[in-house]
Design goal:
26 strands, homotrimer, 646 residues, alpha/beta
Chain lengths: 646, 646, 646
C-alpha cells in the first residue's frame, strides 16, 4: 500500500480573503515555521470569486496561490460551492431550502441551498468549471476538495423541485406505482397511490409517517447530496484531470449513507470534532477513524478538519488541554490517516466562527496553541521517514454498521428508543478497552477475512445480508448478533415467524434461536442477569431451538428467559449488558476466535493500535498512566503518545 | 336492562386488505379457534374501496364479508372515512388541515382532513352512501362503525373554510356581535368586534388569547367533529336503517365534550390503551370504563379497541405481562362492557403500526399472545351464560366531570397549572381503593339518585349548575366541593364576591364559606395541615361564615387558615391533600352517607366492582395478593381475576 | 432636585370601559378612600375610542375624566395605541407582525402590530392626534403615557416593510455597502453583499447567523420601537404642549437599549413584577430601581405598574404575603420613585388578565388586598411631607450595564452560555448585601464621580469605552474588570493580541494583564481557588505583565493560573467566584476606595438605602429580623420597613 502523499500532510483551511494582503506574507512565514505542508483554499470564497453572476475575480486567489507555491505550501483546492452568495438567494429564492413545515430558510449563514435546485446546480457547475479552467495544472495544487461537509445543515428541502426529484427517484427505484404501493405497504391507513405524481415529501403531517416513505426520503437525501458531489467531480475530471478528488465526510453522519458514497471518492477525507471535556470522546473518535478507514477499504485517508483547541458551536466550548490535541492527532495517524489538517489556519476576527480555535489564534504566534501547532508539525515531518506513512491498519474483527438500520431505528412508532450508533459503540468500546482493532463493514459485505463479526441492532437487512452473517458462523468464525437484528427487510416489512430473518432462516439456524416477543425496559429501568450483572433498555422472549443459554434474565418482564445464547461459534445477545458483562463476553469470544488482545485486561482512557511496524499507545487522560501492552510495560505522560515497535 | 348483543362480543379490527387473499381463510380458521364473534372491517379501506374519485371497488370486500359470514363471524361495518386517499389530498389540497401557525399538513399518515372541509364532507358522504347501499341488509353486519377516533390527531384546522364555519357557529350561539363582545369581555385589551366577519380563529398571536375566544374554539371543535358523526349517521339511518350506529370514543379525550355526543350514539363504544408499566394505570382505566358507562346513562357499552400487549406510539413500548391483558379485559366487563374488541386481529407486517401488538402476532399462532387470546375468547363465551351480560353497574357516588372546566384550567394565564383529570382522578382513586363504584356526571345533571356527589375543580359552572350542587346538600346527601369550583361562569367571567358562584350564592350558603384569595403553591412545594398530613399545589384564603373547620393549614402562605370545612353534609376542600388524608376524608364521608365500602381499608393494585349478581375482584399487580372484600377473604394470582357472588 | 409631582403619586391603571357606568362612581369613592391620587386611563381603549376607522367616540371617556376630576384624581392619559382594534387587522393584515419563520401572527391578544408598519403608524398617529386635540388642557390630566410596554411581545417583525426599514437603517448607519461588508465580516462564509437591497432580516436560516447582522437587527429593533415613541411624543408636543410625556419601561428588558431611549423621555417610568416566592427577587428588584433611576440621570422616576399581589402569567402565580407589597413599594420609593402606581385599579372579571391581582380584587373592598392598598395610600400621603419626595439617591459605586454586550453574549456560537444580567447582578448583590448603593452606567460614560467602577462581562466595547475604564484606575479610583470584557469591538470583531482591547491597549496597561485563552467550565462544573473558595462557569489563561496575583486556580483546566489580579487600583477577575469570595473581594475594594458599607457584614433578605435625609431599612423576608445598620440596631417585623434619619 502506498501513501496518499509523499509525506504526511499538515496544515488547514486557509481563508486569506478574511484578511488584508499584508497578512498573507506573514501567513506563509508562520506556515513554514510550523512545517505546514498544505492549505485548503477557497472553501467559502464563492462570493469573492464571483461577486456578481458570471463576473469572476480570480486575481486575489492567483496571488494567494503564488505566495503559497513560493513558500512550498501545497494546496487542496476547494470548489467554493459550499456557501452560495447573496445574489443567488436574492435573484433565485427558489434555490433556498424549505423545511418540513414549509418555511423557506433565509440567507445569512451558509449552505442555504436546496440540494435539488437546478438553478443552484447550474451556478455551482459554472463556478467549478471556471475554477478548474483557471487552476488546472497549477503547480501548488495537489488535490480537489469538492464543496464542504455536504448536508451538514441541509439534507432535505421540501420545495416543489425537490419533490419532483423525489418522485423521479422513486420511479427509478420502483418502476411501477404498484411496486411502490407494495414496498410501502400502502394498504395500511388507506395510503394507496395511483401514480408517482401523487407522492409528496414526508412533510409535517397529522400522525406517524409511512415508515418506508420516510426511509426512502432518507435514501433520496443521501443520493441527492452524492449527486452534487458527482456533478462537481465529473466537471473536475473533464476540465482538470489528473489530481485526486475528495469531499470531507463527517464520520457517523446521519444524513448520508457513506457506504454508497465512498467508492466515488478518490480518497476519503473526514472532519472530526471531539468534545475535550468528555473522557470517553476518544472512543467515538477512534471509531470514527476506523469507519473512515473502512469506507476507503483500508486505504490511507486524510483528516481534513479538526480544531486545535475549542470549537464554537457547543453550549459551552472547553479548550483542549496541553497535549490533548496531539493525542487526538496521533489517534488519527495510528488509525490510517496520512495527513492532519485543521479548521482553520488563522482564527477569524469576525463572523460566526471567530470563537473557534485555529493554528494561529487571536493571541498570535506567541501562544500555547501556536507553539503546540509548531511542535506537531515538526513531529509529523519526522514521522514521514517511517513506514507508518501509507501503511495499513490490520484488523481481525468486524462490526457491521448500517445506515438504513440507523434510519429505521430513529423513526417514530418503534418498539423503543434505540440510539443506534451508541449501541454499536458499546461493542466497539469493549474491543477498544482490550486494544483490539476493528473494521466497520457494510451489511452484505464479504466477511471472509474476519475472525469475529458483530452485528448489533441490524434491524433492517435483506435475507442475503442475513444469510451472509449466518455463513460467518458456518465457516467457524465467531458471529455475534445483537438484539433487534433481522427484524425488517429493506422495505421495512417484518420478517414473520420469529424474526432474525423469519421462520426457518439461515440465521435462526445458525444461532439456534428465534424471537417471539419484544419486552423493552422503561427509560432508566435496569434488570439483572443470573450472573448478577445489570442490563438496560431491552429484554425479549427468546425461543431456543438449539443453543446453550449463556445467561438468563433474573429480573424484569421476562425473568427466566434467555439473555445470551451460544450455538457453536454463533452468539445471540438479547439485551443491553453493562460494560463489565460486555467485557467478559468479549473475552470469551476473543478466546474462542483465537484473537489476541493487546491489553491483558480492559483499560479505559488509553488506546493502542498497530500501523505498519509501529505500535501506538495513546493516553487520552490528563493523568500520567502506566499500562501493560502486548507484554510490555509502557509509561505515558498526561495525554502522552508512545510509539513502540509492533 | 338488556345486553347490547345476545352474547359477549369478542374480536377486533380486521384489515384483510393488507394481506393476500390466501391469508383470509386462515384468518377465519384462527378466529373460530379463538371464539371470535366479531370483526370490525373497513376502518382504513377508503383508498381500496374508491381507488379513484367515484370509482368503487367492492369485490374484495364482498369476498371478505362472505368468508366471515360463512365462518359465523359478525361484522362491525366501518364507514372507511377515517383516512381519505391520496387523490383527495392531491386534487383538493384545501381539504388538508392547517395548524395554528398556518402550516398545511401533508398526506402520508392518516386523518389528514379539516373537519370543516365541505369537499371532504362531500366525498365522505358519497362513500358512506355507497357502502350503505352496497351492504344494507348484509347478514354478517350487526352494527355500523362511523369514522374512527374522531379528532384523535386533528380537532381543529385554521383554514379559511373552518374560520367561516366558526363565524357561523358563533353567530348561532350569540345572535348579535354585541352579545359576543359581552361574553368575550372584548372591552379588555381593545378586542371589540364590529361584526362576526372580523372574528378569526385563535391562531398564533403575540400574547395570551382571549379566554372565551379559546373556549368557544374548543366548543366549536367538539361540535364540528360531532357534525361529522351526525352526517354519516343520518346517511346510514336513511339508506340502511335498522342497525345500531356508533363511533369509537377515547375516554378522557380533551378534543370533544362527549356529554354532548353521547345522546347521538346508539350505543357507546370506547378505545383504551393503558401503559403496562404504570402500576396505577388500572385506576385511570377503571375511571375511563366508568366514564364510558356514564356517558351511556349506565347502559352496557362496547370496548372497541385495546391492545393485547404492547402499543407502538410511546417512547418505550412495554409488553403486557402474562395475564395482564385478561385483567384489563375483565376491568371492562365488570364495569359494563358487553364486548371486548382489539386493535387489531393480525399484526401488520408493514406500515406505521407494524410494531403494535395484535391477536395474531408476527410470530403466528403458536405464541403466548395468541394462546392468551384464545383463552380469553373461551372465557368470555362461557360468561355469556351468566347474568353479567347486559347487567347494570350500580353506583351511589357521583363525581362531576366537566370538559369546559378542563379546557379553562388548561388555558394560559390562570392561577396555577392544574391538571384537571389528574385532580378528578385523585378523588376517584380514593374511592377505588375502598372498592366503591363511581358514576361520572355532567355539571347540571340531576343528582337525585346519589348519596355522595363530588365536584373537584369545577372552575366553570353556571349558577344553575352550582345551585344544583347546593341542592344535593340541602336534601341531606353528602356534597364535596373541591378548590377552584364555581370561579367562572360559562362565559368565563369571574363570580364576584367570594367565588363559589359569587356573593350570596346558594353554594356559599350550603358550604358556609367563601373564598377571598388564591394562594397556589410552587411546583414541588408542600405544606402541612394541622393533622400533620401533607398538601400540595393549592392553598387559598377561605372565609368561614357558618362551617366547622375540619383541618387548617399549619404551614405555607395561609398558615392558620381553613383547609377543609364542613357544614352539615356539605364539605369544602381548599387544597390538594395527600392520598392518606384523602382516604381518611373519604372514610368520613362514606360513613356520613351510609355507603358501605367493599374494602375495609384502602387497597392498591386490586379493584372490586359488582355487576349483575357477580362481584369481580381483579389483581392488577404481578404479585399474588390476598384481600378482604365485603367480608370475604379472596386469594388472587398474579393479575388474577376472581368472580364471586355479589 | 425637585420632585416629579407636588406629592407622591399613588394609584394605577384604570379601565372603566370594562365595567358598567354605575361602577364608576364607586371607583371614585374607593379611590378617595385609598388616598389614590392618580389613574392611568385609556391604555387599551383604542377599539372603544375608535370603533370604526376614523369614527371616534369620546363621550364615555369625557364622563370618566369628569368623574375623576370631580373626585380630585389626577390622570396619566394614555394614547391608547398599545393594542389596535380588530378592524385594523382585518382591513390591513400587513400591519400584523410576522415571526422569523414567516408566520403572520393573528388578532385576539394585544400588541399585534409590526413596529415598522406604515399603516399602523398612520392610524396610531391619527388616534394620538385626536386624543390630544380632545383632551389638551383638561384639568385632570397631568402627564401623557405613550403606548404601553413597547416591544413586550413584539420587538421585530420579519415582513417586507420591516425589511425595507432595516435596509434603510443600515444604509444610514454604514453609508456604503463596502462598509457594511467590512463591519459584518462578510468575507467569512461567502456572505458579501453587493447592495443594501440584498440584505434580509436574520430570519430562520440553516446555520449560525452572521453575528453583526444579528446585532444590527437588535439595534434596529430598539430603534424602531423608540421611533414609535418619538412619533407619538412629537404629536403630543405639537398638539398639546406643556405636560410631561413618558412611556413605561421594563427594567432589564432585552428588546431595547434604554440608554438610547432615556434622553427622549420627560421622566422615566417603569413596570416591575417580582416573583413573590423568590427570596432573592428583591435583589433584582432593587437593581431594576437603580437602573431606572440611572436611566434618568438620578432624577426621580415613577413606578408605573406593579401588582398588589399575584400576577397571572407565571406557571404558578403565588400571592404576595401580607406586608410584602408594602416592602416592594418602599423599595421603589427608597431608590428614587416619586410615585407608586399599579396594574390595575379594579380586577377584571373577564379577559386574559382576570386572574391578575388588583387594588380592588374580585372579593371587593372588604378584603386584605384592598385594606393594604388603603394603608399604603395613607402612608405615602403622609410621606409627601418629608424631604424624601424629589430627593436624590447618592451612590459612589457604578456598575457598567451594556445592552450590546448582553445581545452579543446571548448569541449562538460564543465561548459559553453567559447570562449577562445574572453575571452583572452577582456584583450588584454583593454590594447590596453590604448596603452600598449602586448606579448603573453606560459604557463610555464619564465615571468621574465614582470611587468604584465595575465592568463585568463587557464583551463588546469600543476602544474609547475601554480607555475610559482605564482612566478610572489612572486617577486612582478602583476599577474592577470581569472576565469577557473588551473581547470585541462594536462591530463584533475580536481585539487581537490578548483581548481587553487588544495588544498594548490602555486597559491591558491599567490592569497589567492580558488574556491568552478562554477555558469555560462545563455546566455545573466547579473549580477551586487557592484560598479554597469555589468558582463556576469560567476560567481562562491570564498573562501577567505587571500585577499582583490575588488568587490562583487550584483546580480545573488552568490550574495554577491567575484568577484574580490587582495592579494598583485596577482589579481583574478571570472567573465567576462564589458569593463568599465575592463578598471578601468587595470588602477589599470598599476599603481600598474608602467607601463605607452600611452593613458591617453581608446581610441577605434586608436592604438599606438612603434617600434625602431618610435611611430606609426594608425586610424582604417573612421572618422578623434585627440588623445593624450604620452603627444602629434596627428591629424589623415580617416584611417590615424602618425609616431612620440618615
Amino acid at each position: 500500500m502506498t501513501g496518499l502523499f509523499p509525506e504526511f500532510r499538515y496544515g488547514g483551511d486557509y481563508n486569506p480573503e478574511q484578511w488584508p494582503e499584508e497578512v498573507w506574507d506573514d501567513d506563509v512565514r508562520l506556515m513554514r515555521g510550523a512545517a505546514v505542508t498544505t492549505a485548503t483554499v477557497g472553501v467559502f470564497s464563492w462570493a469573492r470569486l464571483e461577486p456578481r453572476p458570471g463576473e469572476f475575480d480570480f486575481g486575489w486567489l492567483d496571488r494567494v496561490l503564488a505566495k503559497l507555491d513560493a513558500g512550498g505550501i501545497r494546496v487542496m483546492m476547494a470548489t467554493a460551492t459550499a456557501s452560495p452568495p447573496a445574489w443567488l438567494a436574492v435573484r433565485y429564492p427558489e434555490t433556498l431550502p424549505v423545511d418540513e413545515r414549509g418555511v423557506r430558510l433565509g440567507f445569512g449563514s451558509r449552505q442555504q441551498y436546496s440540494p435539488n435546485s437546478s438553478v443552484y446546480r447550474e451556478h455551482a457547475s459554472r463556478l467549478v468549471r471556471a475554477i478548474a479552467e483557471r487552476y488546472r495544472g497549477h503547480p501548488a495544487i495537489e488535490a480537489w476538495h469538492v464543496n464542504n461537509e455536504l448536508g451538514c445543515h441541509v439534507v432535505h428541502s421540501y420545495d416543489p423541485e425537490s419533490v419532483a426529484a423525489f418522485r423521479a427517484w422513486l420511479e427509478t427505484r420502483y418502476g411501477t406505482i404498484d411496486e411502490l404501493n407494495r414496498a410501502w405497504g400502502t394498504a395500511f391507513w388507506s395510503q394507496r397511490y395511483d401514480s408517482f405524481a401523487e407522492v409528496d415529501a414526508p412533510r409535517a403531517m397529522p400522525s406517524f409517517t409511512n415508515p418506508t416513505h420516510s426511509l426512502d426520503w432518507r435514501r433520496f437525501g443521501s443520493w441527492s447530496l452524492l449527486e452534487l458531489y458527482l456533478m462537481e467531480r465529473d466537471i473536475l475530471r473533464e476540465v482538470a484531470p489528473g489530481l485526486p478528488i475528495t469531499t470531507n465526510l463527517m464520520g457517523f453522519f446521519p444524513g448520508a449513507d457513506y457506504w454508497e458514497w465512498a467508492p466515488e471518492l478518490d480518497f476519503i477525507s473526514d472532519d472530526a470534532y471531539p468534545d475535550p471535556t468528555d473522557p470517553d470522546a476518544y472512543v467515538t473518535l477512534a471509531a470514527q477513524r476506523d469507519l473512515t478507514r473502512s469506507l476507503g477499504g483500508g486505504r490511507p485517508w486524510l483528516l481534513m478538519e479538526q480544531s486545535p483547541s475549542a470549537v464554537n458551536w457547543r453550549d459551552r466550548n472547553a479548550r483542549k488541554q496541553p497535549g490533548q490535541h496531539r493525542a487526538h492527532s496521533f489517534n488519527a495517524v495510528a488509525r490510517g490517516a496520512d495527513g492532519i489538517l485543521h479548521f482553520q489556519w488563522r482564527q477569524a476576527a469576525a463572523g460566526a466562527e471567530k470563537f473557534h480555535a485555529a493554528m494561529v489564534p487571536h493571541g498570535g504566534e506567541h501562544t500555547r496553541i501556536h507553539r503546540e501547532a509548531r511542535e506537531l508539525g515538526a513531529e509529523l515531518a519526522e514521522l514521514s521517514a517511517t513506514d507508518v506513512l501509507g501503511a495499513a491498519v490490520p484488523a481481525r474483527v468486524a462490526i457491521v454498521f448500517d445506515w438504513e438500520s440507523w434510519w429505521a431505528l430513529a423513526q417514530q412508532a418503534v418498539p423503543t428508543r434505540i440510539d443506534y450508533p451508541a449501541v454499536v459503540l458499546e461493542w466497539y468500546a469493549a474491543l477498544l478497552r482490550r486494544g483490539v482493532t476493528v473494521d466497520f463493514t457494510r451489511a452484505g459485505a464479504d466477511h471472509a477475512g474476519y475472525d469475529i463479526v458483530i452485528a448489533p441492532a441490524l434491524q433492517v437487512a435483506s435475507r442475503a445480508d442475513l444469510d451472509g452473517l449466518a455463513a460467518v458462523a458456518d465457516r467457524g468464525a465467531q458471529l455475534v448478533v445483537g438484539y433487534q437484528t433481522g427484524i425488517l427487510d429493506r422495505d421495512l416489512h417484518a420478517y414473520l415467524g420469529g424474526y432474525l430473518g423469519g421462520e426457518g432462516s439461515a440465521l435462526q439456524h445458525a444461532l439456534g434461536v428465534s424471537v417471539e416477543e419484544f419486552a423493552p425496559l422503561a427509560a432508566g429501568q435496569t434488570a439483572v442477569l443470573d450472573d448478577g450483572t445489570t442490563v438496560t433498555d431491552w429484554q425479549e422472549v427468546v425461543q431456543v431451538a438449539d443453543a446453550e443459554v449463556v445467561a438468563r434474565f433474573a429480573t424484569g418482564p421476562v425473568t427466566g428467559g434467555p439473555a445470551i445464547t451460544r450455538h457453536g461459534s454463533a452468539w445471540y445477545v438479547a439485551t443491553q449488558p453493562d460494560s463489565a458483562r460486555l467485557d467478559a463476553l468479549i473475552d470469551q469470544i476473543l478466546v474462542a476466535a483465537g484473537v489476541d488482545a493487546s491489553f491483558p485486561a480492559p483499560v479505559s482512557g488509553v488506546e493502542t493500535v498497530v500501523r505498519g511496524s509501529t505500535r501506538f499507545v495513546i493516553n487520552h487522560s490528563p493523568d500520567a498512566r502506566t499500562v501493560e501492552v502486548a507484554g510490555q510495560q509502557v509509561d505515558l505522560d498526561s495525554f502522552g503518545v508512545a510509539r513502540l515497535t509492533a
